[in-house]
Amino acid sequence: MPRPDAAPSGAPAPGATVPRSLQLVPKAEGRLTAKDFKSDQEVRWCPGCGDYAILAAVQSFLPELGVRRENIVFISGIGCSSRFPYYVETYGMHSIHGRAPAIATGLAVARPDLSVWVVTGDGDALSIGGNHLIHALRRNVNVKILLFNNRIYGLTKGQYSPTSELGKITKSTPVGSADWPFNPISLALGAEASFVARTIDSDRKHLISVLRAAAHHPGSALVEIYQNCNIFNDGAFDVLKDPSSRDSSLIRLEHGQPVVFGANQEYAVVRDPAGFGLRVVDTASVPASEIITHDVTVPDPAYAFALSRLSGEDLSHTPIGVFRAVDRPTYDELVRGQVTTAQAKVTQGAEAELASLLHSGDTWTIL
Amino acid sequence: MAKQVRQLDRVVIRFAGDSGDGMQLTGDRFTSETAQLGNDLSTLPNFPAEIRAPAGTLPGVSSFQVHFANFDILTPGDAPDVLVAMNPAALKANIGDLPSGATVIVNTDEFTKRNLAKVGYDSDPLTDGSLADYTVAPVALTSMTVAALQDFDLSKKEAERAKNMFALGLLSWMYSRPTESTIRFLERKFAARPELAQANIAAFKAGWNFGETTESFAVRYEVKPAKMAPGTYRNITGNVALSYGLLAASVRSGLPLFLGAYPITPASDVLHELSKHKKFGVTTFQAEDEIAAVGAALGASYGGALGVTTTSGPGVALKAETIGLAVALELPLVICDIQRAGPSTGMPTKTEQADLMLALFGRHGEAPAAVIAPQSPADCFYAALEACRIALKYRTPVVLLSDGYLANGSEPWLLPEIDELPDLRVEFATEPNHELPDGRRVFWPYKRDPQTLARPWAVPGTPGLEHRIGGLEKADGSGEISYDPANHDKMVRLRAARIEGIAQDIPPLTVDDPDNDAEVLVLGWGSTYGPIGAACRQLRARGVKIAQAHLRHLSPLPANTGEVLRSYQRVVVPEMNLGQLSTLLRARFLVDVISYNQVRGLPFTAAELESALEEVVKNA
Q: A5 falls in which pLDDT band (50, 70, 90)?
C-alpha cells in the first residue's frame, strides 16, 4: 500500500519556488517578520490558554509564506479560538457560529489572489458547522482550516463538546455525557479531504511544519491542533506531553519513514491481520518488512483512516503529522476554469454581450 | 369549406393535463406564438410540487393559462374562455373555474371508465349532460396523433407523447397564431433526434390541419395585435427577468456576480439561468445548504464581488443569522426571496406574499435591511437592478421579494437600452481615512460617508488597510470591539438611520387617481399590481372613483407614504397574506387601513378585487 518513493504532495518540489496553492497570491516585496503580523489588539484569552502558543506559532510562520500581508485573510466562526483573527495583522472576519468554511469558500472562489485561512474549534467546526466542514473538505476549496480541538466548550463555560470523551462530566452532563465523540481526522478522511494533519499546541516546531505542509497543499487542508483549555478541560492532552507517557503515546508520522514510536522505537504499526486496519505491535516481534512505511499520497483514504483509528478516546497511540496529502483538482480552480473558458469566447464588450442576451430568443419589434 | 373568422378583443385559454403531458411546454409555445403576433399577454402556470404524481389523478394535474388581447392587459385572466382538458382529471380540476358558455376541448381518448373512476366520476361527463352549460368539443387527440405519426418509426408510447403538439396545432389554428417559431423550436429542442423533431412537427401540423378541415370547429378567431410602445419586445418570465437584472447589475457595476444558492422551488430557475452565463464572469455556487449559500455570497461580497443568494421562504428562515451578520458587517448582499405558500413546506409551487414581515424583521436584534418588491414578471429585471444598486451604495443586505406568480408568469417586455440602465459603479477604499491624534493616518472601517452613512468597502488585497470585522458590536468609526452602552445605542441607531436614509434616494409614492377626486385609495405591493390595476380599470369604466398606488420599496417606505395615506378617506390594502403590510402601515402611520386578504396560493382575480373595492367605495 505505501509507496515510499513518491514525493509528498504539498511539499515544495525541489527547485520550485512557489507551491500551486500560492501561485496566484502576490509576493511580498520584502521579508516580513512575526511582528508584522501582530495586530494592536490586546489578546484576551485566559492566561495559560493553548491558543497563545498557536497564535505565536502562526505569526512566526506567516512571513515564510512570502506573500503580501494584505492578501492573507483569516476567517473564524464563534468560540474562544475564533477570536484569533482580531490578533493577526491581516484582513480578517470573525463571523458566526459554524459558518466560517462557507464564508471562506465564497471568498476563496471569488478571489484566487488571496491566501484564505479558517480558524475554528471543535464545537464550531464539528457541531454547529459540521455540514460546512465536510462539504468544504470534499469540494477541495483552497482554504486552510485550523481546528483548535480542546474537547470542551470554553466560551460558554464548560459544556462537553463533540470531541469530549464518553462519560465526560461537565456543567451540562453532571453524570457524564452519553455522546460518542467524533475523531476529527477520521471525519475529514470520511469526507475524502485531500489534506489532513494533526499537531499539538505545545510543540511549536511540529506545529509550524504542519502549517507549512498545509499552506503548500493545493485545495482544502484540515489541521487539527490539540489545544489545552486550562480553565475547563485542563490537562486534556497531558498524556501526549508528559515525558513519562508521551513517547509511548505519540506516533510521529513522517512521510517515507516506517511508522515506529516509543523512546527506543520499540513499537511499530503493522497491518492487522484480524481486521481491516492497522495495529500496534512490539517492533521486535515483527520483521522490518511488515512495518508500515508512511505515505501521505496513498489515493485510498482507507490507509490514513486506519492510522486515525489507532488512537482511542484515551489518546493512546495518537499519530500526529500529515496523515494524507493527495493531489486533486481544487473546486475553485475548476469553477474559475469554467468561467475563463466561457469568457474566452466573448468577442464584444460586456454591455454589448448583455444587449445580445436580452435580445436572444423570440423577439418582435413594434415600429 | 371556408371557415368563418370572428374578431375578438381578448381570450383566456387554459391548457390542462397530466404532469407528464407537457402542458407547460404547450402553454409556453402558444404564448411565444402569441407574443410574435404582437398581442399583449400575461401567463399563469400552475403545477403540482410532485414531479410525476400518479398519472390521471387530480394531484397530478398541471395547467398553463394565457391571457392575450389587442390592448394592454395586467393579469393572466380571471376565468378561462377555453379549457383544453387532456384527461378527466384535468377536466374535473378546472371545470369549476369556467364561466358558463366557455369552450371545453377534451381529449376523448382518455375518457375511459378507468380514468373516470380514478377521479371519482360516476358517469361520463361528456355524455351525462353535466357539461350542458359549456360548448364541448370532443377531440380524439391521442388516437389522431398516433394515426398522424404512423409512418414514423416510433413506439406507440413515443407517438402518444406528441399529443400535446397536436393540441397546440389545433389551438394555433383556432386563434390564427403564427407557427414558424414553434417549428423552429421543435427542430432545436430535438436536434439530437431529428426523427422526434419531425414527428412533433407532424403532430403539430396535423392538429392545425384537423382544425382547418373538420366540421367540429366552424369558427376561427383572430385577436389583432395590441397597440404597444415602439421597440423590440420579448416574452419573459419573472425568474429569467430577475436573473437578467442581476447580470445587468454586474455589468453596470463592473463587479463579478457571485450567486450562492441551494435548490428550492420556485427559485431554482434563477440558479439554472445564471449558471448558463459564465461568460459574464458569473460564478454560481450550489451550496450544501441555504446557510452556506448565503455565507459564500457574503464571503464573495467581502472580497469585492456582487454577492447574491436566491431562495424561497424556508431558505430565508435559515439564512437569517447570516443576513444579520451582513447587517453588522455592513457589506452589500442581495437576498432574493421567491415567496411561496407557507408555513413550513406549505405549497411549494403556489404563490403567496407572506414573507414581508420575515424580510423586514426576521432577524434577532435590531437588524434593519432594505426590502423591495417587483410588481410584474418583466419588472423583476428592474427590481433586481434596484436591489443591487441599494446594496452596493449603502453597503447593506437587501431583500428582494418576488413570488411564485411573478417567477413563473410571463409578459412581453420592451427591451431596454443597456446604457440607459443605472450606473452602479462603486469605489473601493484604497487609502487610510482617519488621522489619529498622534498624526498617524489609519484606516477606520466604520467611518461613514456623511451622506449615505455607508462605511468604506476595503477589500482584502488592499495594502495598508488591513482590518478585522465581525459580528461583535463595533466602536463607531474605528470598528474595534466595543461593549460600551452608549456606543451600542449609537450604532443601533446609525444602522437604522442608514436604511431609513435610503428614502431620500428613491422615488416618492405616486398615486394613479385620474380625476384627483377619489376618496378611496387601494395600496398594494409586489405581484398584486396586475389584479389591483385590472380591478381599478373595471371600476373606473363603470364610473366608480378609485385611486391606486403601489409600493416597490417596503424598507424604507417612500418618504411621502404617510402623507399619501392620510389624503384619502379610506385606504384598502389587498395582500396575499393575513395583513402584513396593513399591520405595518397602521403601526407606522396610525391610519386605519382596511386589509383585504386571500391566501389560496393563487393570485387575486380582478373580479373579486373589483367587488371588494366597490364595497369600500360605497361605504366610504
A: very low
CB of A314 less than 8 A from some CB of B: no
Place of cell 389584479: B531
Write out residues 272-311 of A within 8 Å (CB-CB) of B: none
Rounded (5°) CA angle B264-A102-B389: 70
Please report the DSSP string for B502-568 in residue order.
Answer: GGGGSPPPPEE-TTS--SEEEEEEGGGHHHHHHHHHHHHHTT---EEEEESEEESPPTTHHHHHHTS
List of chain B residues whose C-beta atoms are within 8 Å of the C-beta of residue A366: 38, 225, 228-231, 233
User: What H or E segment, with its residue span, contains residue B586?
Assistant: helix B580-589
- CA–CA gap between residue B430 and residue B433 (Å, rounded): 9
pLDDT of A12 above 50: no
Residue type (1 letter), A273: P
How far is Cα B146 from Cα B141, in angstroms, rounded to an integer?
A: 9
Check CB contact of B288 with chain A, cutoff 8 Å. yes
| Phi, then psi, of A196 in degrees rounded to 5 | -140, 130
Distances (CA, A) of B336 to A95, B254, B267, B268, B395: 22, 21, 8, 11, 16
Residue ranges of the alpha helices (H) in chain A?
A: 50-61, 100-110, 122-123, 130-139, 184-190, 204-216, 238-241, 246-249, 301-308, 331-344, 350-358
State whether the Cα torsion B257-B261-B263-B268 is positive or negative.
negative
Give tens-digit pLDDT for A90-129: 999 999 999 999 999 999 999 999 999 999 999 999 999 9
How many separate helices (H) and strands (E) can be counted in chain A? 11, 12
- The pair phi, psi for residue B399, each rounded to 5°, is -100, 125
* Residue B579: partners with Cβ closer than 8 Å, 6 or more residues away: B573, B595, B597
CB contact under 8 Å between A354 and B280, yes or no, is: yes
Q: What is the pLDDT of residue A13?
A: 45
| B178 CB within 8 Å of a chain A CB | no
Q: Write the Ramachandran bin of B579: left for phi over 0, alpha for psi from -120 to 50, otherwise beta.
A: left
For residue B307, which phi and psi values (nearest 5 degrees)? Answer: -90, 125
Question: Is B326 part of the contact surface with chain A (CB cutoff 8 Å)?
Answer: no
SS (H, E, C) A44-106: CCCCCCHHHHHHHHHHHHHHHHCECHHHEEEEECCCCHHHHHHHECCEEEECCCCCHHHHHHH
B235, B29 Cβ separation under 8 angstroms? no
pLDDT confidence of residue A153: 96
Q: Let me know: does B571 contact B520? Beta carbons within 8 Å.
A: yes
Sheet holding B547-551, edge to edge: B511-512, B547-551, B520-525, B570-575, B594-597
Segment holding A228, helix H or strand E: none
Q: Is A83 on the interface with B (CB under 8 A)?
A: no
CA distance B72 to B83: 23
Q: Which residue of B has its CA nearest to A104?
A: B299
Given CB atoms, is B246 within the 8 Å cutoff of chain A? no
Q: pTM of the predicted model, to two decimals?
A: 0.95
* Antiparallel, parallel or unpaired: β B219-223 and B4-8: parallel
Extract the residue ranges of chain B whose pLDDT is less than 70.
1-2
pLDDT at B51: 79
List of domains in chain B: 4-223 (3.40.920.10), 234-420 (3.40.50.970), 427-505 (no CATH), 511-619 (3.40.50.920)
User: ipTM greater than 0.90, yes or no?
Assistant: yes
Nearest CA-CA partner of B615 in B522, B524, B526, B516: B522
Interface of A with B in 10-69 (CB under 8 A): 26, 39, 41, 68-69
Instruction: Give me the pLDDT at residue B394, please.
Output: 98
d(CA B255, CA B361): 29
Task: Spell out which residues of chain A touch residue B297, defining contact as CB-CB under 8 Å.
Answer: 106
The verdict on a CB contact (< 8 Å) between A355 and B235 is no
How much is the pLDDT for A312? 81
